[in-house]
Amino acid sequence: MPTYPNGTQTIQIQDKEVCLLPEKAVFLPGSLSLLIADPHFGKAAHFRKSGIPVTEKVHIHDFLKIQKLIESLQPTDIYFLGDLFHSDWNESWNDLEAFAGYFPVCQFHLIKGNHDILPEAFYRSEVWNVHPESLVLENYILTHEPMESVPDGLFNFCGHIHPGISLFGAGKQRLTLPCYFLSGNQMILPAFGRFTGLFGMKCEKSDQAFAVTDKKVIPVNFMQ
């Protein structure tokens, strides 16, 4: 049986349970599927090539998070919603494939994003099931970029935006956190990778955000 991490927020979407994890990933218990958006593996090495000293530890931390989720949730499938790897090839790609190879019981899927520009030969190993634009899973449609129009009867899980939400304290303190952003029949996932920025979301009354701290997911209601 899956063991949900402490701080998980469980909601209902399409009459099914959806778990928003503090690790910035979504777990679908009905299909034992884990959704991860925008890990941007290889970005640290990409910056080092440009002379910017960024340690590879930022990616090691993300590998360990995925390992912990696999061990606790026991997913059969892991879906990366784009930007699995950041731009051109570097040695971090070998680390990523070696890591995925430790979990033969999991099927690894990639819905390609704008940063997934490696030659097709790199995705032809037994590790990856590649989907060029989208994938329908149960009543969900998985994409990298948010769909402008979601087909009737489906719900869109996506990434790309790296959504963030600003919280204000009584003393006008401001804290911006990554978030899950729910609007209509679409949810934008926070970027899984640590080495990514945040895009402040413009929120309407009908929207809902779930802010992500280090330890839990917190619902945020908008008052306008």
Notable features of this structure?
224 residues, alpha/beta, nine-stranded mixed beta sheet
What distance lies between the first and last C-alpha atoms, to the nearest angstrom? 42 Å
Q: List SSEs in N-to-C order.
A: EEEEHHEHEEEEEEEEEEE
Major beta sheet, specifics?
9 strands, mixed
Shape: globular
Number of strands: 16
Q: Roughly what percent helix?
A: 10-25%
Structure description:
This protein is α/β, with parallel strands linked by helices and about 220 residues long. Helix content is about 15%, strand content about 35%. The protein is built from three helices and 16 strands. Strands 8, 9, 10, 11, 12, 13, 14, 15 and 16 form a nine-stranded mixed sheet that branches. A seven-stranded mixed sheet has the order 1-2-3-4-5-6-7, with no helix packed on it. It is globular. The chain starts with 8 loop residues before the first strand and ends with a strand.
